Write a sequence for this structure.
């Protein structure tokens, strides 16, 4: 198969390129930079927001793996134009050119942020959504969401793909928009979409030292500078940390072992390790393997963040035969070594 990987020189994209090449596919990369695009891939310098660049990149390909995006939660609402201008416009231009050139298979990089808060249940009232976070609660250190009916603390559960989408920051809203644009394209053209909702991806080549870097890179970079990781809230936020090579493997099986998706259909999959861990756990693990300073819990918060969101990846396991292979401890040691040696990408 000949696959176009947009954003194939970036953190996740470069690992996908390598995995596709290892699986015997022909790969073309379209990116704003070509350094890091992977040996053996055809690299094109271009922008998915440019119709001519997309048309050139799509010639002769069988499928598209769309990774190009502005990532991170955003700093504040003033980031909205940047996220919409990069992620939503870029996806719309790419899809329009796919329709013009007849490319009808798309694997889309989505994210767990589309869910907002994860799944919760109340001991008395059963499944309940977490209400929006309120500044007064966060300022007082009350971070756990409570039942909207009785006020009792909610219990976090694994979120499944049919959960309601509830974006709570600029990046999340742009990822939901990408999914909706892809669905509109599929219905209009008879194309097929597999939407991979990545949970917290970590590993070598993570963007570092930017306001948009992932929490794992932020912690590891602080430790590499001899500083203590600064942990927001009380460190009890639950996440699912999945290694980038496992994410790349999920993209390969999405292209090669895709389910029986009907023309015009969109199929979403969570991509996570299946093992919830707290942000504090991650900071402590990185501090231990690096021999650095113990994490410092700050109580700081971001209103656009969420308390708990952890994945059920059972659909991906059962339908595509994927399973994570990288042990968390091994992955943390690899990340710490990579960032200490300067192997992280500086660009976001």
């Amino acid at each position: 198969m000949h696959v176009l990987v947009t954003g194939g020189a970036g953190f996740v994209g470069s690992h996908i390129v390598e995995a596709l090449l290892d699986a015997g596919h022909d790969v073309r990369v379209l990116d704003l930079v070509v350094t890091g695009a992977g040996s053996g891939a055809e690299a094109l310098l271009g922008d998915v927001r440019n119709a001519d660049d997309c048309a050139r990149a799509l010639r002769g390909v069988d499928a598209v793996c769309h990774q190009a995006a502005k990532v991170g939660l955003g700093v504040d609402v003033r980031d909205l134009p940047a996220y919409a201008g990069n992620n939503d416009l870029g996806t719309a231009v790419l899809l329009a050119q796919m329709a013009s050139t007849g490319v009808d298979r798309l694997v889309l990089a989505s994210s767990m942020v589309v869910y907002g808060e994860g799944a919760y249940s109340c001991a008395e009232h059963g499944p309940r959504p977490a209400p929006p976070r309120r500044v007064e609660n966060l300022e007082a250190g009350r971070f756990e969401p409570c039942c909207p009916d009785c006020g009792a603390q909610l219990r976090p559960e694994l979120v499944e793909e049919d959960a309601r989408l509830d974006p709570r920051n600029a990046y999340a809203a742009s990822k939901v928009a990408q999914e909706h644009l892809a669905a509109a394209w599929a219905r209009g053209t008879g194309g097929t979409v597999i939407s991979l909702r990545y949970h917290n991806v970590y590993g070598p080549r993570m963007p570092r030292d930017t306001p948009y870097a992932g929490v794992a890179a932020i912690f590891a970079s602080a430790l590499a500078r001899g500083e203590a990781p600064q942990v927001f809230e009380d460190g009890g936020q639950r996440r699912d940390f999945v290694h980038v090579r496992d994410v790349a493997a999920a993209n390969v099986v999405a292209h090669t072992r895709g389910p029986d998706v009907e023309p015009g259909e969109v199929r979403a999959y969570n991509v996570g390790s299946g093992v919830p861990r707290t942000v504090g756990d991650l900071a402590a693990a990185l501090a231990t393997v690096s021999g650095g300073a113990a994490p410092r819990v700050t109580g700081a918060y971001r209103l656009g963040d969420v308390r708990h969101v952890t994945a059920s990846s059972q659909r991906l396991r059962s339908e595509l035969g994927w399973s994570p292979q990288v042990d968390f401890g091994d992955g943390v040691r690899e990340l710490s070594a990579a960032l200490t040696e300067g192997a992280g990408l500086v660009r976001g």
Residues 343-348 have pLDDT under 50 and may be disordered. The CA atoms of residues 31 and 199 lie 23 Å apart. The first strand starts at residue 2 and ends at 6.
